[in-house]
Amino acid sequence: MSATTSGGGGVVTAEPAAGVDVGPLEDFAVGEGRAVVVDGRQVAVFRHRDGRLSALDAVCPHAGGPIADGQMDDRVVVCPLHLNVFELSTGRSCSGQRDLARHEAVVEDGRVVVRLAGRWAAPGGPGTRRATRL
Ligand code: FES
Q: pLDDT (tens digit, 9 = 90+) per residue, 31-41?
């Protein structure tokens, strides 16, 4: 089910945003994170050993550390600069920092597709575009 509102010259729909193709799955090493840029936003994509993907904002809220370079297990990632810890499934801080935004990352036709949190589709339906990789 979707909700649609209009007014002010635009239409807002509650359908998920179009995905952005950030590259082939084989470019994402198992058990590691990789930073990509999606619509100008740095996103850290993590490939779990069980096949899942997680995606969080890539910049640590503590002091700007590179979250994609952190050590991960099946549940958390540890920022490499000062060792703050964030849940991979939610972005929630486990060490008293601000939470990281969580995004959707899925595999479609062998490629990793990211949908940013809080973004909504333009009228006309979703599609998949290609993104810039860091
Ligand atoms: S910058 Fe991430 S823990 Fe300090």
A: 999 999 999 99
Give this prediction's pTM: 0.81
Q: Residue 53 carries which side chain, given as an amino acid letter?
A: L
Q: Is 77 left (phi over 0), alpha (psi -120 to 50) or beta?
A: beta
> Does the residue 6 lie in any domain?
no
Coil, strand or helix at 91 = coil
- Residue 43 lies in domain: 17-118+129-133
pLDDT digits (tens, 9 = 90+) for 84-132: 999 999 999 999 999 999 999 999 999 999 999 975 444 444 456 666 5
For ligand 1, residues with CB inside 6 Å are 60, 62-65, 79, 81-82, 84
Number of domains in the chain: 1
Give the distance (Å) from ligand 1 centre to CA of residue 129: 31
